């Protein structure tokens, strides 16, 4: 029987790791869940580094949202469950997704519950999806749950795209700036260097600095490239560790403007996910566990797991969130009011709506700040190099003019 290596956390948030001998990864997850361990990774023993599949499961978030909304509509219209799945399998625009739905259909026909059948395809239907479906089946409100789930998937995807655009934009601008600078130093500045050598005489200090940078980059560009690649790999490996992810995620939240976007995005994702789960009838302990996995930030995830441990001991959700110092006071206060009034799901949804709008504002602010800053930086770099290159010419002109006078 194959051996799987796993990493995870206890309910108290303590890191755990080990090996388990089971037939499939799904069985490993199930066994560890029974031991009350929140699994963060599980892989076959001896499996080394693998290139990630950029296509993933081949099913996009949009595909999943359309499938869920159509499924909800058909269930609401009174069609039998198996017939709904059969129709969805046949009309799927992606053959691979159609085959997957077909497999789910056969599982349901054989007597499995829908949530168990979906559990065979965890790469597409995550814990949140399956738990909500299970709650819908138990409560006899599967159509309502699926409609709520479709709305959640669409809003979560929109939020993710906004946060990603906020992170990608400055990275692209910085890359373009570095590329333009490198191009000038490698291809343009050397032509001036030859001309200055022919002139002779001592060059101004700014000119000597720019020529030295040009010469170094032209001769050792490969070394610089190796250093950048090495730094990237080292950073990625450090981020894959528990402590590395905690340190870097915490640092990201403290970056001016960008950190504000990331924090508001994490708060919106947390409140939207937990609110949707609670409203769907998922127990709050399971909801917090699922929410911690989808938080997208180690610091936020640990704060949620601390809140989960607090609830197990009979305390409130709001108290540990306040102690973490990560969540804004308004969020903590509104969650506290929601707990006291028994309308936590409604309060969480209101917070999510507010912070999703805040993310829009924060992204616009980030864009409006970055554009002028990068223009000034690029202008300073390019202008500085141009001035450095023309200084010897000014000196030469003054010498020539002095000789004629």
Q: How would you explain this protein's 3D organization?
A:
With 405 residues, the protein is mainly α. 75% of the residues lie in helices and 5% in strands. Among the domains are: 3-44; 61-156, Receptor-associated Protein; 254-363, Receptor-associated Protein (Up-down Bundle). The chain has 15 helices and 3 strands. It has a 3-stranded antiparallel beta sheet with strand order 2-1-3, covered by helices on one side. α2 (61-76) runs antiparallel to α7, α7 (142-199) packs parallel to α15 and α13 (318-324) runs antiparallel to α14 (329-341).
Secondary structure layout:
Layout: E1 3-9, E2 15-21, H1 25-34, E3 38-44, H2 61-76, H3 81-91, H4 95-109, H5 114-118, H6 127-139, H7 142-199, H8 205-239, H9 242-253, H10 258-279, H11 284-293, H12 298-312, H13 318-324, H14 329-341, H15 344-404
Membrane topology: Multi-pass membrane protein
Transmembrane segments: 168-189, 209-235, 373-391
GO biological process, one term: protein secretion by the type II secretion system
What is the compact description of this entry?
The chain is mainly alpha-helical and 405 residues long. The chain has helices at 25-34, 61-76, 81-91, 95-109, 114-118, 127-139, 142-199, 205-239, 242-253, 258-279, 284-293, 298-312, 318-324, 329-341, 344-404, and strands at residues 3-9, 15-21, 38-44. It is elongated, with a radius of gyration of 28 Å.
């Amino acid at each position: 029987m194959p051996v799987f290596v796993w990493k995870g956390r206890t309910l108290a948030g303590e890191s755990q790791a080990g090996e388990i001998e089971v037939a499939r990864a799904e069985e490993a997850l199930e066994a560890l869940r029974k031991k009350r361990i929140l699994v963060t990774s599980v892989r076959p023993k001896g499996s080394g580094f693998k290139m990630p599949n950029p296509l993933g499961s081949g099913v996009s978030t949009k595909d999943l949202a359309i499938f869920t909304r159509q499924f909800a509509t058909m269930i609401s219209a009174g069609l039998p469950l198996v017939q709904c799945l059969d129709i969805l399998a046949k009309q799927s625009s992606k053959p691979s997704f159609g085959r997957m739905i077909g497999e789910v259909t056969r599982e349901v026909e054989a007597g499995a519950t829908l949530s168990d059948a979906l559990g065979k395809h965890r790469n597409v239907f995550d814990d949140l999806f399956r738990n909500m479906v299970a709650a819908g089946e138990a409560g006899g409100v599967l159509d309502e749950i699926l409609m709520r789930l479709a709305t959640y998937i669409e809003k979560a995807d929109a939020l993710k795209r906004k946060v990603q655009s906020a992170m990608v934009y400055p990275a692209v601008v910085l890359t373009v700036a570095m590329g333009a600078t490198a191009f000038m130093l490698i291809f343009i500045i050397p032509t001036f260097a030859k001309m200055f050598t022919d002139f002779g005489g001592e060059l101004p200090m700014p000119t000597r600095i720019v020529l030295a940078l040009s010469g170094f980059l032209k001769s050792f560009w490969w070394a610089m490239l190796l250093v950048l690649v090495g730094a990237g790999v080292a950073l990625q490996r450090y981020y894959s560790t528990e402590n590395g992810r905690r340190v870097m995620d915490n640092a990201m939240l403290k970056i001016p403007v960008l950190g504000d976007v990331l924090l508001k995005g994490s708060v919106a994702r947390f409140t939207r996910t937990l609110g949707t789960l609670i409203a769907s009838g998922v127990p709050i302990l399971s909801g917090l566990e699922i929410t911690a996995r989808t938080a997208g930030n180690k610091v936020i995830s640990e704060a949620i797991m601390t809140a989960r441990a607090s609830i197990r001991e009979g305390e409130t959700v709001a108290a540990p969130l306040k102690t973490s110092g990560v969540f804004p006071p308004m969020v903590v206060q509104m969650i506290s009011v929601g707990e006291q009034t028994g309308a936590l799901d409604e309060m969480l949804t209101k917070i999510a709506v507010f912070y999703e709008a805040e993310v829009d504002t924060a992204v616009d602010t980030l864009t409006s700040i970055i554009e002028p800053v990068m223009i000034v930086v690029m202008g300073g770099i390019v202008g500085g190099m141009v001035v450095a290159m023309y200084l010897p010419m000014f000196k030469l002109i003054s010498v020539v003019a002095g000789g004629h006078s």
